[in-house]
Design a protein that fits this description.
Helices cover 31% and strands 25% of the residues. It contains 14 helices and 23 strands. The longest helix is centred in the middle third of the chain and has 13 residues, at 232-244. The structure holds ligand EPZ. Ligand EPZ binds next to α1, α5, α6 and α12.
Length: 415
């Protein structure tokens, strides 16, 4: 079983380059179903979630070619409307196939999604939206059956600004008849990227990035070439790696506007950060102070950075408080950090972290993607060697993580 071995690495110093955004690539790859023709994408990260998405698209009739970060999807014909259980169950983003398949085929049989065990992760908001646009819905045997000859635009209020539900409804409205309005929509940069991709093909989407998105349905889309945004969570993870080791470095291929809440929090803790057009420079050579964090939908502090900051707070001076408001079970990494000598108490949705604590290397397990990244960060500053199991979780969302950290001086390798 593959493991990550990470040793105390001293202060990281160097330059790391971010890959494309996993959470942008998944909806955009799914949206290629809406287009009759050849779509050329770039800045697509090489990750297991992406591999699984491509496998499913091929099974639906797409001809796929991949060369480094370039992916070409030829969807001249869509042969099916059923998504297979096996790859679908491996990641959450698979449910984003629902709207495009339903739009193109008039029906879709979608296996229930998988993904990180960070909470119940229902799909009720997605289904509420599909029903509002006229879809008939049946649930059973681990599948959702959707059918509607042509969706009809409607107004949908999301009880929670769900990223996935917003993305599915944008795709559902793109070829629907009439106007769809999504209220209390998610504002994440990945939503804006999906809308920009669709608009470049002739869709009529406005308001993306705000809590009200309008989509005026069109009859068809024109294939295009598109480069997706970079991964802001990967960038934030690298910033945390320089911070937890009191190092300094440059993070390239990132839009600093996408990381404002993370930059603000690191600055509050004592790091010096300079924003450039496509990169960030961080100097965390002075000691860091603890802080309070509450995860919120964008533009609040991202839940996908919560675990990494749990590790960082172990090394900061004082008592850190982190409240996880988005998912109900996103503290799976805390027990593993405490095995390394951390002093973290969980109280409902809050974690209280005493620092600084001298962590010691140990055998630990990653139970989810970002929790695994948190363990890597802790291993960089713990005394001795840390052996991380559950690497498959980490490889779902980080491209060449060990190589990139190694280039900044980390003593880390896959075994
Ligand atoms: C996306 O998940 C991301 N995944 C997650 O990233 C990210 O943590 C999350 O958005 C929040 O930013 C992808 O984009 C593939 P949500 P998603 O729907 O769409 C509740 C990572 O580490 N909810 O915004 O599943 C849900 O239970 C992953 O890269 C409903 O109640 O997130 C949760 O509490 C982890 N009903 C909250 O909304 C629904 O129908 C946020 O979920 C849908 C969601």
């Amino acid at each position: 079983m593959t493991k990550i071995i990470v040793k105390n690495s001293g202060s990281l110093i160097g330059t790391v380059c971010c890959s494309g955004s996993k959470n942008s690539a998944l909806p955009i790859l799914s949206a290629t179903i809406l287009t009759n023709g050849i779509t050329s994408l770039s800045n697509i990260p090489r990750l297991s979630d992406i591999d699984n998405m491509l496998l499913i698209l091929e099974g639906l009739g797409a001809k796929i070619s991949q060369n480094r970060d370039k992916v070409r999807v030829d969807f001249n014909e869509c042969k099916g409307y059923v998504t297979p259980y096996e790859p679908m169950s491996k990641f959450r983003g698979s449910f984003l196939l629902a709207a495009p398949l339903l739009s193109r085929m008039g029906k879709a049989r979608i296996s229930m999604p998988g993904g990180c065990p960070i909470g119940n992760r229902p799909i009720d908001l997605h289904l509420k939206g599909f029903a509002a646009l006229g879809a008939a819905i049946e649930n059973g045997h681990g599948y959702v059956d959707l059918s509607c000859k042509r969706l009809k635009g409607a107004k949908v209020y999301l009880d929670f600004p769900s990223v996935g539900a917003t993305e599915n409804l944008i795709m559902a409205g793109t070829l629907a008849q009439g106007e769809t309005i999504i209220e209390n929509a998610a504002c994440e940069p990945e939503i804006v990227d999906l809308a920009n991709f669709l608009n470049q093909q002739g869709a009529k989407i406005s308001g993306m990035g705000s809590d009200t998105i309008k989509i005026l349905g069109v009859d068809s889309l024109t294939p295009t070439e598109y480069s997706i945004i970079s991964d802001r969570i990967e960038a934030g993870t690298f910033m945390s790696a320089f911070a937890i080791t009191n190092g300094k470095g440059i993070i390239k291929n990132v839009n600093p506007m996408h990381l404002k809440p993370v930059t603000a929090k690191l600055t509050e803790m004592g790091a010096k950060i300079t924003e450039k057009k496509n990169s960030l420079i961080i100097d965390a050579t002075s000691s860091l102070s603890a802080a309070s964090i509450k995860t919120l939908p964008f533009p609040g502090f991202p839940t996908d950075m919560q675990a990494q900051f749990s590790s960082l707070m172990c090394e900061a001076e004082g008592t850190g408080i982190i409240v996880e408001t988005v998912f109900e079970n996103r503290f799976l990494h805390i027990g593993e950090l405490n095995r390394m000598g951390a002093d973290i108490r969980i109280d409902g949705r809050s974690s209280v972290i005493e620092g600084p604590k001298k962590l010691s290397g140990a055998k630990v397990t990653a139970y989810d993607l970002r929790g695994g990244a948190a363990l890597v960060l802790a291993g960089l500053c713990a005394a001795g060697e840390t052996e991380i199991d559950g690497v498959k979780h980490i490889q779902r969302g980080y491209e060449h993580l060990c190589d990139k950290l190694h280039s900044a001086g980390a003593d880390i390798f896959l075994e």
